[in-house]
Write a structure and sequence with these properties.
Structural class: alpha/beta
Number of helices: 14
Order of helices and strands: EEEHEEHEHHHHHEHEHEEHHHEHEEH
Shape: globular
Radius of gyration: 21 Å
CATH topology of the largest domain: Rossmann fold
Bound molecules: adenosine-5'-triphosphate
């Protein structure tokens, strides 16, 4: 568990981060979202002490970070940034293994970890291990950057706009990969983004920053349904709020017994996509399957009821 306790950074008499407190549970993703200059990066960097707080403290599993040498801290906290920050003259394997090497892991263990991570990121180790960053696409470089942050099994991983430079399709895939890998490894992740859509897709919790202050810290559905301030409401965007909400829940949550003919959706499909399929096919019910086996059906009426329940 990471506890951020009234942390503040003052630059030239003005707070860039103003008494922010939040607790990040182990094994979850917290997305920090806000407009440019709201203090997101400064907040993130106070956690690994790339920026020294003016006041307040951060505790990792109860231990204040001020008690730890900075080097030790940075090994316990992975860090991934936009543009990945890879060493261009080091192979993919050396880049990913950088922190384990610093920690003195045996070679075999580093190699096994590098291969495990490359596999997780769908980059076959035999093909990618010995390449250099310049021989990878932007999306692959970004995956290596995230793999490097995960390599030493850190207590937590900080990510600053890691997907900012990716085109929308690759970006969506990168987000899905991160979610899947985070679940598989049980990692604790704090990710900074200016994109509310990304924050609600990725975060178990979303922390909204405005002018240095934390204005709301809640689950995505609550942020969408009950924005705490006008600013949060603006960030969420009025028009497609019901759709954003539906994108958070899978069909399996409202599946009903009995099968119907017509288009098929998997139980893991989001209600937003199921709605889209209903509208596109002109049906008011869809057959639901799980791994190819019939599970039941979902109706347009039930999807609508789900959207309205939060209204
Ligand atoms: N080293 C510094 N010296 C003085 N002011 C700074 C410094 N770093 C950040 N600031 C100021 O603190 C405020 C918050 O900056 P920060 O980079 O944390 O915002 P951000 O939300 O991450 O923005 P962006 O999305 O544009 O990166 C800004 O007003 C910025 O100008």
């Amino acid at each position: 568990m990471i506890e951020i306790d009234a942390i503040t950074k003052i630059y030239d008499g003005t707070p860039a981060v103003d008494a922010v407190s939040l607790t990040v549970e182990t094994g979850t993703i917290t997305a920090i979202v806000g407009t440019s200059g709201s203090g997101k990066t400064t907040l993130l960097r106070m956690i690994n002490r790339l920026v020294e707080p003016s006041s307040g403290e951060v505790r990792i599993n109860g231990e204040p970070t001020t008690g730890l040498p900075k080097e030790a801290l940075r090994r316990r906290i992975g860090y991934a940034i936009q543009g990945h920050g890879l060493f261009p003259h080091h192979s993919v394997a050396r880049n990913i293994g950088a922190v384990p090497r610093l920690l003195g892991w045996p070679r075999d263990k580093i190699r096994a970890r590098v291969d495990e991570l490359l596999d997780l990121f769908s980059m076959p180790p035999d093909e990618f291990r010995d390449r250099y960053p310049g021989e990878l696409s932007g999306g692959q470089q970004q995956r290596v950057g995230v793999a490097r942050a995960l390599a030493s099994r850190p207590d937590m991983i900080l990510m600053d706009e890691p997907f900012g430079a990716l085109d929308p399709i690759i970006r969506t895939r990168a987000q899905e990969d991160l979610r899947r890998i985070q679940r598989a490894l049980g990692s604790t992740i704090l990710i900074v983004t200016h994109d509310m859509e990304e924050a609600i897709q990725l975060g178990d919790k979303v922390a909204v920053m405005d002018a240095g202050k934390l204005v709301q810290y809640a689950a995505p559905a609550e942020i969408i349904a009950k924005p705490a301030t006008e600013f949060v409401s603006e960030m969420v965007g009025g028009v497609d709020r019901p759709l954003k909400l539906l994108s958070l829940f899978p069909v399996s949550e409202i599946v009903e017994e009995g099968t119907v003919d017509g288009p098929v959706v998997d139980a893991s499909t989001s209600l937003r996509d199921a709605l889209s399929t209903c509208l596109w096919s002109g049906r008011d019910a869809l057959r639901v399957e799980r791994d190819g086996a019939a599970l039941g059906h979902v109706t347009l009426a039930a999807i609508r009821a789900r959207a309205e329940a939060h209204g």
